[in-house]
Write a structure and sequence with these properties.
This protein is an all-alpha fold. The protein contains 18 helices and no strands. The structure holds protoporphyrin IX containing FE (HEM) and copper (II) ion. One of its GO terms (biological process) is aerobic respiration.
């Protein structure tokens, strides 16, 4: 790849990481505001609470995806040639989407939550005017289109290089007995995300269009149950895919730091194939309380939810332990973050598995147990991988050097994030419902503990972010061969 093309890719990655980390800190502040309100420390109106909740949910999922895409794009461009313009198109459409969403929420009082469940947006269009609802729905639609453009482009590139998405998922090795190792882990993971997320986004776009049409002309109505299927297929898959993009950093960074290649052996390939399939199948675990859904769908949702992330999680955790075992791995910010993030991911899956059990779900699903689960795997998994990658990227392409301050920030981040999710899970246990602006007195204690933890998390995130931005000076100046010659260059 030409030097200029690589430079542009690096600049794009650097820019999206800056956006990701700054927005992340802002969204965390909104998170603490919600907890302070639920804990009766600061009072905001319920209407304001739901606006804040909507922007927190949308913003967090959005930036987890943006950060994940930066990771995917950066490493994938080591193996295949990529046109940086496509990355910028996605970035630009994402930013336009974000501006529309922010205007909808803070300019026009849209507050239906990031899941925009039909016909909620139509109701709020009647209450508060069409503009807010339409801006929000179009904002999400534009964001989705940006991702589709990127995924379709990547699909075309992978098909050209590997001869088909089946091949880049390793089918030659699984079904046709081809010997040796499959495509690089980054390629396998990208293929999975292309398949799953394109389906998810198309489902989401359909649901968005239904809402938009219904708002513009209420004579057109749609089946709310079908819309719920489409919406949760989208929400589940899109949120899940953030980790399948971010995990590429685990493979790449650990192989570089240990000087051992991360090989796509048969178990690894099979695991990624299973997770591709399961991720598409199991969104019905969000519908376990809907008695109108056919029983067999719920059973599929339940059974395969247990198995969903498991294959990839197991091969990743096992692979990481094996690659590190008796290696001379250098423990610095990036490698420790990757390692801790893997535990965050695994730990976050446990409460989900419990919640995906139908009997438990009827009791737990609308409690804070659920935010407890996804804050674990998002905050301590995906976001930790993104922070770790930010450091790695900066060290490789910019000028950041590790200090004792960083170590302090890492431990602060993980200790207090454990406290935050602990407070959510505990609140779930004592039956505090999720998404309630006002809490009963017996629940406020857990909210206050959560808010305190949140403040420390923000302090750590601020340190990561400012140090990252300060270290970015050299990006694009270093020569490519000094940075990306071989994935296995030694770091010592
Ligand atoms: C300082 C860190 C954070 C704090 C204090 C925080 C706080 C909160 C609170 C209080 C809620 C509402 C809970 C309820 O239903 O009552 C919430 C919801 C949510 N948070 Fe966070 N959060 C943090 C970090 C994150 C991160 C890192 C992510 C993902 C990358 C995230 C994603 C979400 C999502 C998707 C929702 C659901 C919104 C909804 O129910 O519509 N949060 N958070
Ligand atoms: Cu789900």
């Amino acid at each position: 790849m030409s030097n200029n093309a690589r430079k542009s890719i690096k600049k794009g990655v650097a820019f999206s990481l800056v956006v990701t980390s700054v927005v992340l800190v802002l969204m965390m502040i909104f998170g603490v505001i919600m907890l302070l309100n639920q804990g009766n420390v600061v009072k905001i109106s319920p209407e304001m609470f739901y606006k804040v909740m909507t922007i927190h949910g949308t913003g967090m999922i959005g930036i987890a995806s943006l950060g994940g895409s930066a990771i995917m794009w950066y490493f994938l461009s080591k193996y295949i040639q990529l046109n940086h313009k496509v990355f910028f198109v996605n970035l630009a459409l994402s930013l336009i989407g974000v501006v529309l969403i922010l205007t909808a929420i803070f300019g026009f009082n849209f507050s239906d939550g990031w899941t925009f469940l039909y016909p909620l947006p139509s109701f709020s269009a009647k209450f508060k005017g069409m503009t807010g609802a339409l801006l929000f729905l179009f904002g999400l639609l534009i964001l989705g289109v940006g991702y589709l453009v990127m995924y379709f482009y990547l699909a075309a590139r992978l098909i050209k290089e590997y001869g088909g998405l089946g091949k880049s998922l390793g089918w030659d090795y699984i079904f046709r007995g081809k010997q040796g190792y499959g495509p690089p882990a980054a390629v396998v993971a990208t293929t999975m995300v292309i398949i799953a997320n394109s389906v998810g986004i198309l489902a989401g776009a359909t649901a968005l269009m239904e809402s938009i049409i219904n708002i513009i002309n209420p004579d057109f109505t749609f089946d709310p149950m079908l819309a719920k299927h489409l919406t949760y297929a989208f929400g589940h898959i899109f949120a899940n895919c953030t980790i399948y993009m971010a995990v590429i950093a685990v493979y790449e960074i650990l192989q570089e730091y240990t000087g051992r290649p991360w090989k796509s052996n048969k178990a690894f390939l099979i695991a990624w194939n299973f997770s591709t399939l399961f991720t598409l199948m199991i969104y019905t675990h969000h519908l376990l309380m809907d008695f109108a859904v056919p029983r067999w769908m719920l059973i599929i949702g339940q059974v395969f939810s247990y198995a969903n992330g498991l294959p990839v999680m197991v091969v990743t955790a096992y692979g990481a332990l094996m690659i590190i075992f008796r290696s001379s791995v250098k423990w610095d910010f990036a490698s420790s973050m990757m390692f801790l993030a893997m535990f965050g991911w695994v730990a976050g899956a446990v409460p989900a598995i419990i919640d995906a059990t139908i009997v438990v779900n009827h009791v737990m699903h609308n409690t804070k147990w659920v935010p407890g689960h996804f804050h674990t795997y998002m905050g301590m998994g995906v976001i930790a991988m993104i922070f770790g990658f930010m450091y790695y990227f900066n060290k490789t392409e910019g000028s950041q050097k590790q200090t004792g301050f960083d170590k302090l920030a890492i431990s602060t981040y993980f200790i207090f994030f454990t406290g935050l999710v602990g407070s959510f899970l505990y609140a779930g246990k004592i039956s505090a419902p999720r998404r309630w602006a006002v809490h009963l007195p017996e629940w406020t204690g857990s909210d206050q503990v959560g808010a305190l933890c949140g403040i420390f998390i923000i302090a750590a995130a601020l340190i990561f972010t400012t140090r990252f931005i300060m270290g970015l000076r050299n990006v694009g100046k270093k020569t490519p061969d000094n940075t990306l010659s071989s994935p296995l260059k030694s770091v010592s």
